[in-house]
Structure formats: structure tokens, C-alpha cells
Amino acid sequence: MKNTAYINNKAYEYQDGETILNFVKRTVSEELIPTLCDAPNLEAFGSCRVCSVEVALEENGATKTVASCHTPVMPNSYIYPDSESVQDLRKNIIELVLTDHPLDCLTCEVNGNCELQDVAASVGIREVRYPEGENHLHRVKDLSHPYMTSDLSKCINCYRCVRACDEVQGEFVLNMAGRGFDSHIIKGNNESFMDSDCVSCGACSQACPTSAISDVFQSKAIKTEEKTRTVCTYCGVGCNLEVSTKNGKILSIQAPYEAEANQGHTCLKGRYAFKFYDHPERLRSPLIKRNGKFEEASWDEAYEHIVSELNRIKSTSGPDAIAGISSARTPNEENYLMQKFIRAVIGTNNIDCCARVCHSPTALGMQRAFGTGAATNSIEDLDHTDCIIVIGANPTDAHPVTGARIKQQFMKGVTSIVVDPRKIELAKYATYHLQLRPGTNVALLNMMFYYIINEGLEDQNFIDNRTEGYDDFKESVLKLDIDELEKVTGVDKNLVREAAMAYANSKAAMEFHGLGVTEHTQGTFTVQLIADLAMITGNIGKKGAGVNPLRGQNNVQGAADMGAQPHQGAGYMDVTDPAMHQKYNTFYGVDVVPDHIGYKIPEMFDAAISKDLKALWIIGEDVVQTDPNTNKVIKAMESLELLVVQELFMTETAMRATVVLPGSSFLEKEGTFTNGERRIQKVQKVVEPIEGTKPDGQIIVDVMNRMGYDQPDYTAKGMLEEISQIVPFFAGVKWDELGDNGKQWPVLPDGSDTQMLHIEEFKRGKGKFHYFDWKESHEVETYSEDFPYIITTNRELEHYNCGAMTRRTGNVDILTEDVLLIHPDDASKEGIADGDFVCVESPRGKVDIKAAVTNEMKPGILSSTFHFPEIMLNIITSDEHCSEAMCPEYKVVSCKIRKSKGKHKVLAEA
Ligand code: SF4
Asked: Which residues pair with 549 in a beta bridge?
């Protein structure tokens, strides 16, 4: 044996660097050594000493007692993990712990699921020998927070919560204060959970071995109830959740430690924001609008009404007068069905999804450069990179679990570059923060290329062997006027040079980007330049590198994969290609799928207003609140003859529907979500659909059948079988073989999956360099004189998109409103104080919003969210969009501000 050590005098092989605890657990038994301060997702700490073992240098020789959790195995050592002496020691340690712990186990919330209780039993404690002395049992509970609770009389000072806050979330809210007997856990500056900077991720609660830190759902109280593993419905990280239920009701959610996507972590949305699912405001019956008022209808009535209207419009105006917007919130199988319904039953390619308003430029730009519009690497690669560049993304708010992992890497010292107009949280830890003016990403990336080429830092080998178009690209870059670009971006050219050199000099550099890249008129061009950046430095096809879009909605990757877009069907095949067009028709058993591209979402709105589009079916998207230029969207909705909205709640869009269908939440149905690293994961039904609602896939199937198309009832397994026959990269995806951690596409017919793309060659053969000149946004060119500020939209950690779900959970008690972020200089210039209402006016309209004065912003730049319908920020955003992918330009909106005189939220006449 290469590495030999002995456990109770029997030889075993240990792994290089392995701790004694892991060695014993792996080779002999998980149970042999009890632990208290150790946890699966934390670094070894060696504080409680419960894991002590005896170690000798020879068989039955003199021993030394060490904490096994952090002591590496020595070659040829003799380990005695359960000697009488260590058993006595462990028992004594636990007895001492119990002298300062309430012994009211029977009434404790974690009775039966308490690690201290388990360890006490395992070391054989029946009673505590020590007399009662001074203790901390009088400590007061902290019930200040909507989710987090603490009862520090039960604290055993194991530091697990402190370490979870530091090592997992990187928030440093929890700490140990005092010395000796006075040592105690504090939050922030000895505040309550609510007053501290706690981000409510729940990592501390899950880590705590007792109920000293817990939550209002008493997540750890649940030991024997039914548990279902599923995937979070909010962002594209795709965290795995373990949901506890009892009698058909959801009690709480924890995060499985072995989940590859989130490794035992979640943010507050995944772990705690689930109570929307049975909220009293859930839609519970189909509604048909008659004489301007909604009336409850049976499912049959609603279906008949929809089918007769769709048939009427189809026969009088043709199939292209009908369109569908599918949902990036619903599973792949439902998206597939929705696009199939629109294409094979209605007979049009007028199908799109919210990828249009977020990452359509990513898909298009990466397809043009690499041949595939998806993340090239896996999140796990963060452990193998030595440089991270984050462009136009705020992951600690919008993709919190990945954001926390990136933050950990920043803090550990990898070279880190943040390109963002705001001083986002990651910027505070970054080596370089390039705080550019919104709308100048192209100019900034061009500056980076200029320095990389001028310093001779290109990876010429990679360029020569793997790419094409470099010579033209280089020629254009070398002509750039760097001083002009410095003025355009507002970023010191020397700082850009340093950052560019740091990126190019690193062994493996990983790129992440978000909507701060895509939601611009030059969004697709920026993505193509990001691809150039990876190619010019050879950062593709290797571990710890790549181009990795942070997908916004949980299944936006899947919705596009499934064909919920007007130019490509399921599996990204071009609908205008005669062979592909024929393939879809043959597969669907019809002859109606057209060979011309359908409407993109903004085109649907224009067509509705011009009366070319007469019917629209929207699943799970509140376009009135979230799409730009609200008044125009409302006008489009109100111009339609039929607007079907499939929803959980009466959203701003549903209010304007002619028929509302109550769909089901992710907790009530099955299917798969595909996360931002192409991981197809099982969404499993946790509870039955709320009475009166139906799974969205079944609703579509019901209508397909009523319109004469024979589609079997919805099951995830059945749908995946169908999808695997038409989507090439799903060829080997089978419901029963997805396992707990899913599979990353492409999944080959033999079931093997793919952690990294473009290893040997790109999907398109050679990677393609493209060069683009920076161009000022049309919005700024046209309006900057009268509207001198730029407002750029963002997201907050606590809320999700239109907020329909998160506003119906405890999150609303943590973050109650949208605010306007404004630099102190601008605030003082305009006579605005923190908390004042500000009237923000753009050429489209005006909104009133409360000011939050902060140095996070650059002077002249404002920022806000659109989570709350009370504000309706999109009244002021514009129709400008990416010239290639039609993604709206939410990030550059010209506006002027003044202290508000009153409420100006006026929706224009439709
Ligand atoms: Fe859900 Fe994203 Fe939070 Fe994970 S990080 S729990 S996927 S919202």
C-alpha cells in the first residue's frame, strides 16, 4: 500500500493530506468518531475536541491524544479512535457542555434531531455528574427577524454558526465576543438579527448543532416527516432544496450538503421564501372577463372560450395573428409543450420567452463566437481559477449562492476584476474595480484588448490553432484612440491596463457576466467581445476558465433550449432552414410549422398595437411590470382581442387579461430546470396543486387536445422521452437516470454528460473573433441634454423580478420598497436628502421613488429596481434595444430628477 496507517492495529490506505477523521469515516465507519464542531461544508476547526483519538508511532506504543478533524494522518501511524481513554474524554467533554445547556430536551424544538443530544447518547451519558453552577441559561431569545431566531441559552460555543457566516456566505455578521466563561455569540455590533447586516441565508441555522440559532419554520425540528428533493424556483444557480412536509403542507426547507449546485447553501429566497405557494391571494379558479369584470368559470368553460377564440382568430386572420410567451420559471417540459402548441397546433413561430429581456444577446453572441450560447464551464471551476472577471453582474444580490462562492475566492486572493458602474458588494473585495459609465462596455473591453495586444500578452498558440478572424480584429484594435476611450468610459486607462494585464497573465481566468452586459443596444456585441477576451488569452476549454453567463430566471437556459424563441425550435435548430423545418413538421406529425421567423416579444407588442397580432398567451410573466416602457406594454395588452394569462397571482398583466388560468407553482408539479451551468435537474412535486389550479403543462395539453392535436397527459418522464428524440443535446436525458444532481448537457445517448464545452474544438469548428466599435446609446444621444442623468436598473437580494412571489413572503418585511440609489454629490446638488421622495422623469413618463443616498453610485448615475408595482419603474424605461437580439436597454435610461412635489405615477392613456 502506498500510504499506510493503522486503525485499531489494522492496516488501511489513506489519501494524501487526509485527516484522521475522514480516514476513519471513509475506511471503517461514519459513526465511530462523534463530532460537534465539525460540519460537512466547513473547514476543520478542532475546538470541541469531541473527535479526539489516540495516535501512536508504533503498535500499542505510547499515545498522544489529538483532535482527529484537523490532524492529518501520519505514515505508519497507529490510530485508536475508540479506546477507553478517548471514550472517557469525550464523555467528560459532553458532560461539561451539558452543565451549561438547558436539559429540557422534551420541549425543545429540535428534540430528536439535535446533534448534541445524539452525541450525548453516543458517548453514553445518562446523567451529568457535575453540580449545578453558574450558567447562561437566562439568555433572552431574539425573535426580531421575519425568519432568523436565536436562543443563545442553548449555545455550546462550537463556532459553527460563525464559521458558516464567514466561510460559506462571507458575511461576517456573527462573531464570538467576551473571553472565557463570558464567551458568547454576537450578531454585528451585538445587535438583533433584524438590526444586523444578516442576509438571512440560513447557513448559520443549518450549521448550528442545537437550536441556539434557528428559524421561524423550525427547520431542524423536522426529523421524521416526509422530505422531497427539488430545485429552487428563483435564480439560475439552481440550488437543490430538501423540502419537509406533513399532511400535505410544507413545513420548512433545508439545503442538501451533497448537492453539487449549492453544496448545502441557499439564499433567503430558496430557503425561506416559499410561503407564497398557499398564500390566500393565489388564483384558485379560471376567470373570464365579461363586460370589463372577471367572472369565475369552470375549466371547461375557460377552455371552450379560449379554443373558440383561437380558432376564430386563426381562421379570420391566420396563425401569425396569435403568439405565445412561455415562462423561464416553468420546467423544460412545459416550455417544450408551449412552443410545440404554438408551432404545431397554432401554426406560427410567434413564440418567445423572457430570455428576450435578459440573456438573448448572450445566446446570440456566444453562438456567433463559439457555436453554442451556453456557459462553457461549471461553477465548481471556481476552485481552480486564479483570476475572476465579473462584468455587469451583481451576483451577491442576483445569484447569491454563486455570488457567495465568488466572494470567497475574491477574499482568498485570486486576481479579481469587477466591471460595473456601481460599487457592488464584490467591487469592495476586488483587486480592480473598473467603474465605467453605463453603456460603455464595448469601449472598456476594447481598451483591454489594446493593452493585451500592445503588451504582447496574447495566447498566440491558441489563436493560431483554435480561432479565425484574429488578424482583422487585431488591426482594428491597434487603431483605437485609447485617450478617447478613457474619456468615454470614465475609467483611468492605467487601471484598465493593469486589469487587462492581470487577466492576461493569469494561468486560468474565469469570466462571469449578467444583465449589465446584455441589456444594452450593444449587448450582443459586448458578449462577442467577452468571447474574444477569453479566446485572445486562451481561456476556453480548460479548468477554471471560460465564459459563464449568470442566467437570471431559474430556467431561462431551459426555456431557450426547449425552443421558446421565434427563430430556433427545440434544440436551437433554425426554423428557416428547410431541412430543420421539415424535421420539426415530421416529428410533430403536422404540416403547419412555418418557415419564417416569428415575432420577438417587443415585436409582439408593436404588432398588437398595430392590430396585426390579435391573441397572446402568456405563462408566468408579468410583462406589464417587468418589460420596458410600461405604458406601451399596457397599450399592447389592451389592444388584443384575446389575452390569456396563466399565473399564480393577479399580476399587473393578469389584470388586463381576457382569460386568467390558475397555474401551479414549482412546489406542486414535476419537470426539470436547467441551471446556468447547463445542469438539468429534477423538479419533484412536493405537494398537490392548490385546489382549483392545474400544472401548467397539463393546461397546455388540455387545450392542444381540444384543438384537435393528440397530446398525451403531462408527465415529466413522458415529456423528457419526447424531448430527448428532438433535442440533440438531450439525447441521453432520462427522468429515472437524472439522479440527485442532474446532468450537464450535452448528455450523450449513453447518458454521459459534459462539465466543460469546447475542449478540443468549438461547436462551430474555429472560434470566431469579431471587432466592434463603441457607439453611444441612441437614448443618450437623443435625450442627454434635457435628461442629463442615467438611471440603470438592478435587482435586490430579497426580491425576485416582479416580486409576485417574494412580496407574498416574509421577504417583504425585510425589504419593503424600491428605492433610488443616488450619489451624495447629486443629492446635494438637487436638494435631496436620504429618504426624500424623488420625481424621476424620462422622455416616457415619471415615477416617484424614495432616495437612498449612497457612495455606491458614480455621480450622474442613478439606480433602482422594479420589484414593486407601487413604483412601476418601467414607466420610465425605453424602447431602445440590442440591435441584434432585441433585448431592451434597461441599463441606460436618460432622466432628470428633482425632489418630489407629490405622487407622479400616472399611467398614460392607452
Ligand atoms: Fe434559489 Fe438562486 Fe437563492 Fe439558490 S441562489 S436559493 S437558486 S434564488
From this structure: 513
| pLDDT tens track for 577-628 | 999 989 999 999 999 888 899 999 999 999 999 999 999 999 999 999 999 9
Contact predicate 124/167, CB 8 Å: no
Percent of the residues in the chain that have a pLDDT greater than 90, as a whole number: 90
**Conformational region of residue 30, where left means phi above 0, alpha means psi within -120 to 50, and beta covers everything else:** alpha
Concatenating the DSSP letter of every residue in 667-731 gives GG--EEEE-TTSEEEEE---SPPPTT---HHHHHHHHHHHTT---PPP-HHHHHHHHHHH-GGGT
Residues whose CB is less than 8 angstroms from the CB of residue 106 and which lie 6 or more positions away in sequence, other chains included = none
Asked if residue 331 has a cis previous peptide bond (ω within 30° of 0), the answer is no
Q: Are 244 and 667 in contact (CB under 8 A)?
A: no
Ligand 1 centre distance from Cα of residue 864 (Å): 21
CB atoms within 10 A of CB 373: 25
Q: What is the grid cell recorded at 730? A: 438531450
Q: What is the average pLDDT value for the chain, to the nearest integer?
A: 95
**CA 534 to ligand 1 centroid distance, Å:** 27
Helix residue spans in 433-554 (DSSP H)? 441-454, 460-466, 470-478, 482-489, 493-505, 515-518, 523-536
Q: Which residues contact 620 (CB under 8 A, 6 or more apart)?
A: 327, 329, 330, 646, 647, 648, 663, 696
* pLDDT class of 909 with cuts at 50, 70, 90: very low
Q: CA-to-CA distance for 461 and 434, rounded, in angstroms?
A: 29
How big is the chain, counted in residues? 910
Angstrom distance (rounded) from CA 312 to CA 316: 6
Probe residue for ligand 1, chosen from 199, 231, 234 as the CB with the greatest number of ligand atoms within 8 Å: 234
How does pLDDT run across 687-707, given as a tens digit for each residue? 999 999 999 999 999 999 999
For the whole model, what pTM was predicted? 0.94
Instruction: Judge whether 217 and 249 are in contact, CB under 8 Å.
Output: no
Q: Which residues line ligand 1 (CB under 6 A)?
A: 232, 234-235, 237-239, 262, 266-267, 269-270, 399-401
For a ligand 1 pocket test, name from 219, 237, 798 the mutation site with the most ligand atoms within 8 angstroms of its C-beta: 237
The Cα–Cα gap between 329 and 673 comes to 9
Grid cell at residue 693: 389550479
The residue whose CA has the least distance to atom 1 of ligand 1 is 270
What is d(CA 307, CA 317) in angstroms, rounded to the nearest whole number? 15
**Is 197 in contact with 170 (CB distance < 8 Å)?**
no
Distance (angstroms) between ligand 1 centre and the Cα of 444 equals 31
CA dihedral 84, 89, 95, 96 (to 10 degrees): 170
Pocket-testing residue among 168, 229, 401, ligand 1, by greatest number of atoms within 8 A of Cβ: 401
User: What is the phi/psi pair of residue 904, to 5°?
Assistant: -115, 15
Separation CA 731–CA 720 (nearest Å):
10
Beta-carbon contacts of 858 under 8 Å, excluding residues fewer than 6 positions away, are 421, 422, 435, 437, 490, 823
